[in-house]
Write a structure and sequence with these properties.
- The protein is an alpha+beta fold.
- The chain has a domain of 62 residues.
- It is built from 1 helix and 4 strands, in the order αββββ.
- The strands form 2 sheets. The chain has a two-stranded antiparallel ribbon with strand order 1-2.
Length: 91
Amino acid sequence: MGREITLFSSKEAKSRGEIATFLRGLADRLDAAEVILRKGQDEIVLSLPDRMMLEFKVEDEEKRHKGIQHSLEVEMKWYDGDAPTGPVELG
C-alpha cells in the first residue's frame, strides 16, 4: 500500500448556506477544469481531468460525551492518464 501525503487540509465551522455557496463555486471551477484552494499562505492548484471517480459516503459515528456525529463525505479521485466510468445520480 502506498504512502498518503496531505497536500492541503482545512476544517472550519460554516453555516449550511455558506457551505452551499462554497460548493456552488467549487462546481463552477470543476466545469472550468481547474480548482485553486487557498488558506492563509497555503495554496494548491488542481488541474482536473475530464473524467474522475466520484465517491459518496454517509456515516453515523457515536462520539463519547457528544452523541451521534453524522457525516456526508464527497470525494473525487483520479489517476494521471486514467478515465474511470460509472453513472451517478442525484435524487
